[in-house]
Amino acid sequence: LEATPIELGGSRDGPVGLRRSTIGRLPWGEALKLEHVLLAVISLFLLAVCVWPLTRLLLEGVAPNGTFDLSRAAEVLSSRSTWTATRRSLEASLVGALGALALGGLFAFLIALTDLRAKSALVFCFMIPMLIPPQVTALAWVQLLGPSSPLLLALGIQPPPGSANPLYSAGGVMGLLAIQHAPLAFLVLRASFRALPRELIEAARAAGSRPLGVARSIAAPLVAPALVAALALAFVSALGNFGIPAVLGIPASYTVLPILIYRRLASFGPSVIADVAVLSLIVAFIGIAVVLAQTAAARRFEARMPRRPGAALALPLGPARLAIEIAAWGVILLVLVLPLTALVAGALVSAYGVPLSPATATLANFEEVLLRQDATRRAFVNSAMLSGAAALLLAALAIPMGYFVVWRRSAPARALETLADIPYALPGVVLAIAMILVFLKPLPIVGISLYGTLWIIFAAYLGRFFALALRPVIAGFRAIDPTIEEAAQVAGARFGTRLRTVTAPLLAPVAAAGAILVFVTAFNELTVSALLWSAGHETLGVIMFNLDDSGFAPLASAVAVVSVAVILVLMLTAQLLARHLPPGVLPWAGERG
Amino acid sequence: MRRLAFALAGLLALAAPALAQTTLTLYTSQPQQDAQQTVDAFMAKHPDVKVTWLRDGTTQILAKLRAEVAAGDPRPDLLLLADVVTFEGLKKQGLLLPHPAADVAAYDKSLHDPEKTYFSTKLITTGIAYNAKAGTKPASWSDLVKPEFKGQVSMPSPLTSGAALIHLAALTEKPEFGWAFFEKLAQNNVRPQGGNGQVLKAVAGGEKLYGVIVDYMPIREKAKGAPVDFAFPAEGVTAVTEPVAVMKTSKNPDAAKRFVDFLLSREGQELASRQGYLPMHPDVAPPAGFPRVSDIKIMAYDPARALAEEETLKKRFAEIFGE
Would you call B191 and A252 a contact, using CB atoms and an 8 Å cutoff? Predict the structure, then answer.
């Protein structure tokens, strides 16, 4: 499939005519070479970490044992538990995503468009739940609301002994999914609110439009793609969330698809791999359908924001400001401070169920996980290495990829973009199975098996989180007018030079944002590593889940507290550096006031 | 390359035994803390051996092991898992290495495999834990299906826990219980959740007042101040023996056998007792909080049937409890 220079170089808004007239003077030969090499590298990368494993899994679904056989698939599809879990996955993800959109949207509006005070601190606190592993969020909330809640005990309003924890329910799963994914929706919407053209809105206001009229006729069409994108992102993340339904759903027998897959596989072993392959294909279809719908919607809405919007709007809240500020901080207290306090309390008691008091408080749990157990210390190092390396590599790949997709509108790159979304849409358990299928046997040529090493987890992270690194970069390319790169091209700069000196610096902030998203997500990740870890190659998520699972809630809480502390320290360190970074690099920084 | 590495390692072993490290990999269903202590105690005694370990539910470990065996590359040298049935299965598949020199003279003959492929290391019974705030102290298994216990009983799932599988096998074998007992439990709103650790959490946290659970967890937590206690029901308890075995594929079978010897030694048994487990060795005293082993009534079961019907047992259980 040979791309013509026009297809490679033309953007819809770009000066195609001008370009055509300059083709003769440009070093196309060399440019094409480097571009082809880059595109080939990206293709090979996605082939190795996405297409190959998932194709292998698909084959396992329709042709277990290598022969075409749909009877297993038919059996799974006719089972009642399959459809119960599917319905629950859909409803939990949808309600969770809508909740995330409402909460994230409200905060994005307040932060981006109003004259609220102390925005930096508010954003910083609002982002933290995203960085806390889902299973830790669940653990913290369970300790907060159970009959032995240290907080409720102190207030004397604890539920009577023997009453079920209200979180062990469908509502508990949905509520925590909303809180967990609200920062994702917030990030997408804040960027969009900020980019609203102040000049246009002020002009409309000056011309006599009412605020609602402005919102409907100017703001709504510009924000609509971001709303859809935020909803889709939150939905797909919630669909694949494992920690929350694992901790809250299992005791309530509220089984969503990822949990059904995990439990079947963990309990019956690889003999049911064909069955779980079919189950995972259902999730795959849901995820792909949502991603496709979002892409189609975005194309319909597509409207370019000005390249460099002026100062963001600052709507005056007037006399209601203090009340709104108190309400906003009340939300932070509820979704962040209280559960974290319960978590810390849970890490300080000698045994689960003991009320916290000066007499029962102990640091023994921290001593055990930090000083005595090698596995926990190793897990911190492993998770940091895996997620750090994945973040850097994926951000570096995302820039050329986004360039081909948006500015070059390259058809193969667009196909690759859709592919890159698939492993992220699938629950991590599915990608883990796919990885086991392809990497268990020794690799051809080198003769080494990745199974039982950190590399298989790394490969899975690369496949799974590319979409996370790519999305902000794609959005960044969409928001930046390509004429600047075209100007460099007209001035005779070669592709490599342009990529290095023009494109990459322009996109560095969004690429960094993508890298940070990858790091914090991978650092907390449990779903993939739950099936891929091996002795000596534990991740933080696995260690925490395992400790909690074997009844050591205080030890699990201690690991959780330390990991949250590490994340907070990282965030604060980055915050100190924020003034030296371009705006937009840190999702939680860059606020005025 | 690998051969060269082995040769170098061999040379080092000859030249400086203190520097040479043999590595063993242990797959175990022991809780982390106990696994770490056991491994640390062994390594303190055998500084030339380094043990890395992996902990998960017995069922999950077996799933992992099966995948590795299918790929022709089983990783562990040693297995330390919940029950005899598991090891009977592994032995039938020819995965275990006999250790004829193991010293089991002090032990009851019936406790170990006569062909010496696996060895019971401790006694773990399954009884009933209850929260300190519970109104009634449970005295019998049949209490759990009474109306006043409705919605208040937590239970581990045999889909995760090896001990729970043996418990299921033993009770379904008895005419006074049978599957009817489990159907009644389901009607009494019992929802099995994961392994024993989850049961402990539910009972200690006060979300459920009663729980079917292995003995050492509530007894040990009670000593730490948790509001739980453990009852041995009148009909008797079921029990597993947490056997240890060397894999036939072990690259360091001699070091692995030393690990087995350590667990069976008086020292190893005293460690188990300190950790809060009932030791197997008749001369080692049980930990505080336990009755004498001779006072514990253990329900017998047929391991051969449990092995043959494992899948059926699990599937039927899953059907009854809607898992």
Answer: yes
